[in-house]
Each structure stands twice: as structure tokens, then as C-alpha cells.
Amino acid sequence: MWPDKRILDLFGIEHPILLGPMAGAIDYVLASEVAEGGGLGSIPCAMLTPDTAREQIARYRERTKKPLNVNFFCHTPPVPDNAREASWRDRLRPYYVELGLDPNAPINAITRAPFDEAFCALMEETRPEVVSFHFGLPPEALLKRVKAIGGKIISSATTAAEARWLEDRGVDAVIAQGNEAGGHRGIFLSDDVAADISKQPGTFALVPQVVDAVKVPVIAAGGIADGRGIAAAFALGAAAVQIGTAFLHCPESKISDMHRKALAESADDSTVLTNLITGRPARGIVNRLIREQGPMAEVPPFPLATAAVAPLRAAAEKAGSGDFSPLWSGQAAALGKPVAAAALTRELAADGLARLKAVAW
Questions:
Q1: What pLDDT, in 10s, does the model give residues 74-129?
Q2: Alpha-carbon span 310 to 108, nearest angstrom
Q3: CA-CA 20 to 30 A from 59: which of 50, 66, 122, 246?
Q4: How far is Cα 323 from Cα 315, in angstroms, rounded to an integer?
Q5: For the range 264-269, what are the long-range contacts, defined as Cβ-Cβ under 8 Å and sequence gap of 24 or more?
Q6: Which residues partner with 157 through β-bridges?
């Protein structure tokens, strides 16, 4: 019934809907429910260890026999810069004092694990049907090992040039991540990510250009939250959509009460791209930190900026405030609704198909 079935055939799924792998916001529960609804469930591993990732995958397999996507970051870990980190802490000092925290207290390092030998061995052990990457691809030797397990490989592109780069290295499909998308930008060919975000195209300008640039199927991502967005993506040549923010409204998501409330109250102009939370540009709902200090500033590189913000976040959230929290969201959050994930997946598919039927293909 879908006009392009390449992704359905490639992944063995019923509906061309992929759950966006939102690290820290979802786990195997929501992923398995999306899979049971006919989409592709995703488990994000950027904030997991190999052991916790193994547990997540095992629990997913206990809940469903449907295909699974396991997602990883591919960033290069930064070299610490004591001067820059000290400057960032000094900038945040007034907030520490206000919240009754010691500005000079040691802070715990924050890590976001890139795909490495240990994670590669886990993929060889667990053999997920799909392995996806953000910020490019892992080193060639590791990528060859992932390909050898027989799973499909996908990654995000924010420009047609990045899409061609990914196709040249053998991905099975490309995720075209538009500027509207929530969370971290997938930019990886530029050394100046903060400057390049101002040039990144929106989803519905990006998708047809990526479709024209590559032969593999294209998955549209960013600002898609209902059947209208799905139908539009297919009209522009996409073979599937990846949806993140709409699923954060679901009761199965792991977001905080503050995040859930912010999503429910959001409008089309509620989000900005900011590097204050992690050191890398990501789209989220404006909170106090972003409003007063950003949205973009000189901060330690990803993910080091997170360490100095983390104590502020913990103290504020304990008091019921999201002033320093990562309220990640795409621009279409206002279209979301608190529906169970499996039901939402089926509803999105039905709505998208109904709208596509009205189009003369």
C-alpha cells in the first residue's frame, strides 16, 4: 500500500516509521512498543555501557520478536582544555551560589561513549537487524565487522554532501536530518559545527536533494509528527520517516515531568539550537539557562560542557524546575499527544496512508 516499499523490505517492518533513538529519553520499553505497532524500534546506546546495552537488547527481545535498530554516536572524544572548562564554570558560578551549591566542588566527568571495539563485539554477539550511527560512521575496520553480521547500516546526513559520503562507504539507507529535528545535529563533515548550523536546510528542502544525490533509500527526519508530514516526506521521495519528539509524549518515554510539561505547553517557536547543555548544537525547548546564557556560547566541546551543568540540573529538578535540563524537542512538538506508543505508531501509519491515497502517484 505504500508507494515506496524499499525500507519495509530492507528492515522487514510493516510501516515505514522508525523510532528516533533519543539517548536518555527512551529505552527498550518504548522501542518494543513501536515495533509491536509495526515500526522499527530503536535503542540508543550513547549513554550506555556495553553491559547495560546488552541488557537493553535482551529485554527488547523478551518483549518482541520484531526487528531492532541499535544506535551509536561516532564522535571523536575531545581533548580536555582546563582553561575553557574553568571559564565555563566561572560563567555558571552565580547559578551555583543561587542554588546553594559550592562552585569549587569537584564535578563528575560526563561521557558519551562513541562506537568502539567493545560495542562492536556486542553487535557481533547480539546481531541486531539494523545498526545506526550519528555523527558519521565508525572507523573502517569496525564498520566492516558490523557489516559482516548481516545487519543493515544507516546513518544521519544533514546535507547532500554528507549523504553521498555515507553512500560511498556502504550504508544501506540515509537518514536526512533536517533543521527542524530535535536533539543533536548529525553534522560530521564540518570542523565548525556551531557555525554551520545556520546554513543547515530544513527537512523539506533537504529530503529531495538527498534523494537526488544518492541511490539508497532516504529516511526523512525532522518536524514530522503526523500523517501530513509522512505524506509530504513520501511526496518528496523519502521511503520512510524517523520520528522522535512525537514519541516523547507517549507514557512509555523516560523523560522527566518537567520535560513532559514543557512539550505539552510548547508552540512552533518554542525551540532553539543550543550548545550550552552538551557542547554540541542540539534543538531543545528554551529554558532559563538558554535564555540567559545563549543559545550559543563558547563552551567546552561535546560532551564536556555537560559536566558543569549537571549539578545545576540535579538541584533544579529536585525543586521541580527544568531551568538547566536538556528539554530536547523538534519544532513540531505541539502536534504530539500522549498516546501509547504502539497505538501511536499504527495511528501515524494509517493517517499517512489515508493522505497518500488522495495523491495521484
A1: 999 888 889 999 999 999 999 999 999 999 999 887 778 899 999 999 999 999 99
A2: 9
A3: 246
A4: 10
A5: 264/338, 266/329, 266/333, 266/334, 267/334, 268/331, 268/332, 268/334
A6: 176
* Residue 140, C-alpha cell as written in the block: 573502517
What's the grid cell of residue 275? 550548545
At 275-321, the pLDDT tens digits run 999 999 999 999 999 999 989 999 999 999 999 999 999 999 999 99
DSSP state of 201: P
Dist CA 100 CA 112 (whole Å): 28
- The label of the residue with cell 531543545 reads 284
Report the pLDDT averaged over residues 8-25: 98
Strands 68-73 and 218-221 come out as unpaired
Taking alpha carbons only, the member of 118, 143, 129, 144 closest to residue 53 is 118
Distance CA 315, CA 318 (A): 5
Mind listing the domains of the chain with CATH numbers?
A: 6-75+112-252+340-357 (3.20.20.70), 83-111+267-331 (no CATH)
Cα separation, 33 vs 31, in Å, equals: 5
Alpha helix ranges (H) inside 176-216? 193-196, 203-213
For residue 139, say if its preceding peptide bond is cis, omega within 30 degrees of 0. Answer: no
Task: Give phi and psi for 175, each to the nearest 5.
Answer: -90, 115
Q: Report the first-to-last Cα separation within the chain, whole angstroms.
A: 12
Q: Beta strands 41-44 and 240-243: pairing type?
A: unpaired
C-alpha cell at 48: 550506555
Q: Residue 104 and residue 110: Cα distance in Å, rounded?
A: 17
- Indicate whether this model's pTM tops 0.90: yes
265: Cβ contacts below 8 Å, ≥ 6 apart: none
**In the chain, what are the helix, strand and coil shares in percent, each to the nearest 5?**
40, 15, 45
CA distances from residue 198 to 124, 128, 287 in whole angstroms, order as listed: 39, 35, 21
CA distance 219 to 176: 6
